[in-house]
Predict the structure.
Amino acid sequence: MLKIGEKGAIPQKGRTTYAIAPHIPCGVVTPELLRKLADIAEKYQVQAMKITGATRIALVGLKEEDIDSVWNDLGMDKGAAVGLCVRSIRACPGTTFCTMGKQDALGMGMKLDALYHGAQLPGKFKMAVSGCKINCAESSVRDFGLIGEPDGWKVVVGGNVGVTPRLADEVAKGLTDEQALEFAQKVIAYYAETATKGERLGKMIERVGLDALKSAVQ
């Protein structure tokens, strides 16, 4: 069996087949991409196509001997679905499409994805961008979250779901796009320097204190 994440494959129940999740930045697809995924799913007789929580489209039930061929046919990057790294960035439609949007969540999400997707870190690191306080991208339960407000971006850090959910802490607000990107870089750098292996940002904050993080990134 391939190890989890090897060749971008994740062993499935029964450990006889695999799922793969091509990288789809912020979940934005085209008709051509959907046709390609459908054609490949039929060619390799996948058991299911699943839209994941990270807005990827997983191909489930692939044989090990087909993995390389599937990736070659797709011609797409592998989604960072497992491992100690920055996972896919979630983003709502923001001002691009939504009447409720206060900031360009989709544009910001794409920028963060281009900068950080797959970057190796001490633990898994999830990011989300919500265009308004309704928080559709669930920024408040992500390691780094942006929430759009009329006067700019609010930054929240240290959130996560899982067995022990944690709401993110607010650390800044009223930021421009450029300031928000700079803030993300500082938070990620501090986390990379300070966290222990496998430690999520929220757990690190609880260990070192929120004030220590604020001092490091202001």
About this structure: Residues 84 and 124 are 4 Å apart (CA to CA).
